[in-house]
Write a structure and sequence with these properties.
Helix content is 54%, strand content 19%. It is an alpha+beta fold. The protein has a three-stranded antiparallel beta sheet. It has a three-stranded antiparallel beta sheet with strand order 6-7-8. A hairpin with a 2-residue loop joins strand 2 and strand 3. The protein is rod-shaped and about 185 Å long. The termini are far apart. It is found in: Membrane. One of its GO terms (biological process) is proteolysis. One of its GO terms (cellular component) is plasma membrane.
Length: 340
C-alpha cells in the first residue's frame, strides 16, 4: 500500500512529465508553429527542437510552409461577345510568413479559392471567345498577377495559376467546327487556284520559249537554204562561165556537153513528176542515149589527147566499118554545128 511519500513522488513525477512535454516542442521539416503567450502571438517556432515556457506559452497555429495545390472548381463565365463557357483551373501557393498567414486572414485556403475564382470570372469575362480559347497563357498570367498582389498581405506567395479546361456549349462547338472547315476549304481553294495559276504561267513560258526556239530554227534553216541556193547559183554561174569561155575559145565539145546535161536533167524531171503516170516520149527522145554516148566520146577525146600512148578501149562491133553508107548503132545528139 502506497504511503503519502510514494503518492507525492508519483504526483511530482507526473507533473515533471507534463512540464517536460509542455516545454519541449519538436517542429517537423516544412512546418512552422506560432507561439502564443496568454493568447497573444509572440514568436514562430522553426523546424527542429524548440523550448517554450510551460503554462505561459503554447503553440497557436501549425502551418505548412511547403508549396501547396488548390483546385479551382468549374466556373460559368460569359465572355465579352456573350458566349457562355465553363472553365476550371488549379492554383499553387506557398506560405512565406507564418504569423501573417495565421492571424491576417481567417480560412486561408477558402480565401485564396474565392479570390482566384473571382478574378478568373473577371478576366475571362473581359475577353472574346476566340481570344479566350487561344490565349490561355495570357489569362493565367493576368490572373496570377492580380491574385498574388491581393494575397501578399496574407503572408503567402501565389506561384502559379493554370487554366485546365475551357468548355464552350455544344452548339457553339459545332458552329466553330463548321467555321473551321469553311476556313480550311477556303484556304485549300486559294492554294489550288494559286497552283493552277503558277502552272498556267509555266506552261505559257514553256510555249513561248518553244515558239522562240522554233522561230530561230526556221530562221537558221531559211538562212542555210538561201546560202545553199546562193552557192548552187554561184556554181551554176561558174559552170556557165567556163562553158562560155570554152565556146569562145572554139571548143564545140563544151557546148555539146552543156546541152546534153540540160537535156538529161529535163527528161529526169519529166519522169519524176508526181502527177505523171504515163510518159509519152517523142522519137527524138531516143537521142538521149546518144547524148550519154556523146558525153562518153567527149571524155575519151579529152583523155585521149592528154595521154596519147595510153591503150584505148576496144571498138564495139557496131562502130566498125562494116560497109558503105551504114550508120553507127549508138544514136547521136544534135550539136551546136547542126551535126548528128
Amino acid at each position: 500500500m502506497l504511503t503519502a511519500t510514494g503518492i507525492l513522488v508519483l504526483v511530482v513525477l507526473f507533473f515533471a512529465i507534463v512540464v517536460l512535454f509542455s516545454t519541449i516542442k519538436i517542429v517537423p521539416q516544412g512546418y512552422n508553429y506560432t507561439v502564443e503567450n496568454f493568447g497573444r502571438y509572440t514568436r514562430t517556432l522553426t523546424p527542429g527542437l524548440n523550448v517554450i515556457m510551460p503554462f505561459v506559452e503554447r503553440v497557436g497555429r501549425k502551418l505548412n510552409m511547403m508549396e501547396q495545390v488548390l483546385d479551382v472548381p468549374t466556373q460559368e463565365v460569359i465572355t465579352r461577345d456573350n458566349a457562355s463557357v465553363a472553365a476550371d483551373g488549379v492554383a499553387f501557393y506557398q506560405v512565406l510568413d507564418a504569423a501573417a498567414a495565421a492571424y491576417e486572414v481567417s480560412g486561408l485556403e477558402n480565401a485564396i479559392l474565392n479570390l482566384v475564382m473571382t478574378n478568373l470570372r473577371s478576366v475571362m469575362g473581359s475577353m472574346d471567345l476566340d481570344d479566350l480559347l487561344s490565349n490561355r497563357d495570357a489569362i493565367s498570367e493576368k490572373i496570377l498577377r492580380v491574385v498574388d498582389q491581393a494575397a501578399s498581405s496574407w503572408g503567402i506567395k501565389i506561384t502559379r495559376i493554370e487554366i485546365k479546361d475551357i468548355n464552350p456549349p455544344k452548339n457553339l462547338v459545332d458552329s466553330m467546327a463548321r467555321q473551321m472547315m469553311a476556313e480550311r476549304e477556303k484556304r485549300a481553294e486559294i492554294l489550288e487556284a494559286e497552283g493552277s495559276r503558277n502552272a498556267a504561267i509555266l506552261r505559257a513560258e514553256g510555249e513561248k520559249q518553244s515558239q522562240i526556239l522554233q522561230a530561230e530554227g526556221r530562221r537558221d534553216a531559211a538562212y542555210r537554204e538561201a546560202e545553199g541556193r546562193e552557192r548552187l547559183a554561184e556554181a551554176e554561174a561558174t559552170a556557165t562561165r567556163l562553158v562560155s569561155e570554152a565556146i569562145a575559145a572554139g571548143d564545140v565539145q563544151a557546148i555539146n556537153y552543156f546541152v546534153a546535161q540540160k537535156y538529161t536533167e529535163a527528161l529526169g524531171k519529166i519522169a519524176s513528176a508526181p502527177n505523171q503516170r504515163v510518159v509519152l516520149m517523142p522519137l527524138e527522145a531516143s537521142s538521149l542515149i546518144g547524148s550519154i554516148a556523146g558525153i562518153a566520146e567527149i571524155a575519151r577525146a579529152t583523155f585521149g589527147e592528154a595521154e596519147p600512148n595510153a591503150p584505148g578501149p576496144a571498138q564495139p562491133a557496131a562502130t566498125r566499118k562494116g560497109g558503105a553508107g551504114r550508120r553507127s548503132a549508138v544514136p547521136t545528139f544534135p550539136t551546136a554545128g547542126g551535126e548528128a
